[in-house]
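Record passed on underneath.
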Amino acid sequence: MEKIKVAILGSGNIGTDLMYKILKTDGSMELALMAGIDPESEGLKRAGELQIPTTARGIDGILEDRGIRIVFDATSAKAHLAHAPRLKKAGIIAVDLTPAAVGPYVVPAINLGDHLEVDNVNMISCSGQATTPLVYAVNRIAPVKYSEIIATISSDSVGPGTRQNLDEFTLTTANACQKIGGAETARAIPIINSAEPPIIMNNTVYAVLEKEGDEAAILDSINEVVAEVQRYVPGYRLKSKPYLDIRHTPWGDLPIVIILNEVEGAGDFFPAHAGNLDIMTAAAQQVGEQFASHLLKKGGVIV
């Protein structure tokens, strides 16, 4: 079967886990290159052991003539700002796993189909992938005046890159809850938990409604969206039945939908408790697969 050649830019933990996810999926992508800047990185070593071509020349190695059509950028927000125009000039689609947000935000279960003709899409953040679908599920039934998400993740699943990008993380996640989730305003609060043994990713979503909504319809909508996300993140689930309560807010006494969610990883490279990392790579793999299928239908041409 004809496949689209793809590359991973960034041989750290995110790039390495993504490599395993692409390799275990018999889809429309062929992993043609793993690129990093440290020749001794574990990711490049593991790729070499799996007979995946590697380069320690970063994006320069990718831009050599290898027929690569899609690049997953798993570096940093600052680095992607430099990578994006070079990939665009080369006619390569960029799936951005950093908070740089050069291209439109994408959540596979919600809006990927709207962006299959663009050359750069942004995967938001781990919490963006986990919580935006829940805000969206509520808002499509009852308008959300304000959403607040609290993401609690294990300290050992938060690497130096994520820590350096925490400001971008909070802004990007909140923006996604507005632009994709549909909330009028939004806030994202990350909590890094150092407990031992490590906890799995937990998310709390508060969705303040403009007025009373149909609770049964909201619950049905949430369950439908959770099932969609579970198609590519099996460990994505509700911790309990969401509920609607009337609480005092800055806008008066308004109904609030409260959703408790957790994400357990698939264990491809990360430990199972690192669901925050796993949901990013699983979502990126899904995005890449749909882009590759779309390119094959068009004969491999990016318009």
